[in-house]
Amino acid sequence: DTAVSQTPKYLVTQMGNDKSIKCEQNLGHDTMYWYKQDSKKFLKIMFSYNNKELIINETVPNRFSPKSPDKAHLNLHINSLELGDSAVYFCASSWRDRAPQETQYFGPGTRLLVL
Amino acid sequence: KNEVEQSPQNLTAQEGEFITINCSYSVGISALHWLQQHPGGGIVSLFMLSSGKKKHGRLIATINIQEKHSSLHITASHPRDSAVYICAVKWWRGGADGLTFGKGTHLIIQP
Known about the structure:
- The complex is a heterodimer of chains A (115) and B (111).
- Chain A is mostly beta strands.
- Chain A has strands at 4-7, 10-13, 19-25, 31-37, 43-50, 53-57, 64-70, 73-78, 87-94, 105-106, 110-114.
- In chain A, strands 2, 4, 5, 6, 9, 10 and 11 form a seven-stranded mixed sheet that branches.
- In chain A, strand 7 and strand 8 form a beta hairpin.
- The radius of gyration of chain A is 14 Å and the shape is globular.
- Chain B is built from no helices and eleven strands.
- Chain B has strands at residues 4-7, 10-14, 19-25, 31-37, 43-49, 52-56, 59-64, 69-74, 83-93, 96-101, 105-110.
- In chain B, strands 2, 4, 5, 9, 10 and 11 form a six-stranded mixed sheet that branches.
- The chains are: A mainly beta (115), B mainly beta (111).
- The A-B interface holds A 31, 33, 35, 40-45, 48, 50, 55-56, 58, 88, 90, 94, 96, 100-106, 108-109, 111 and B 30-31, 33, 35, 37, 41-45, 47-50, 84, 86, 88, 90, 93-101, 103-104.
C-alpha cells in the first residue's frame, strides 16, 4: 500500500497553462506539505496544511494555490505556468502534535517541465 | 531564518569505508531529520532525532543540540548506499512544523 501518492508522476506543459498536482496520504496524518526541488536538487518548503487549514506559506507566488478538501488530500494548483516552475514537487505528511521525533513521509514526486 | 550547512558536498569512497556526513544549523530546532534521496529521485526518511544518537542497521545518527551539529555515519559502506543524503531541521512556527533543508551530500561508494 502506498503511504503518500502523487499524480501525475510526470507533467509536461506549455508556458501559460494551468495545471494541478494531486496528493493523497493513507496514514491518517493531520498535516501535509508541499516541497519544491529545483534543478540544483535543493528542497524548499512551499506550504503546510494542518487539518485542512493553511499553516505555512513560504513566499510562494500566488499563482500557486493549495487546496485541501479533507485531511487526506492536499492538491496543488498552478496558474499561468512559467519556465521557472519546472522542478520536482514533493508532497509529504506527518503528525503535528506528536513528539518532535515523528518523521515525515514523502510522496514519489511529480516532475514538472514547462516548455 | 535557519541556515543549514552540510559537509562535504560530494564524497566518493571505497566499499567498506566508514562514512561521516556533517550537518550544522544556526538557530534552535525541535528536531533534525536525515533523508536519503536515491538516484531515481525518491526520498526516504532515515532518522528524525532531537537528542543523543539513533542507530538503524549500518546507519548511525548523532546530534549535539548545544553545538547545533549532527552527523550521519555509515559503517561498512556498500555501493547501494550511493545516494544524496539531506539534512533538514524541523522548526515550529504558527502552530505547525516545517523543514529547512541542507543542500545535500552526494555520496558515491565504489566497489
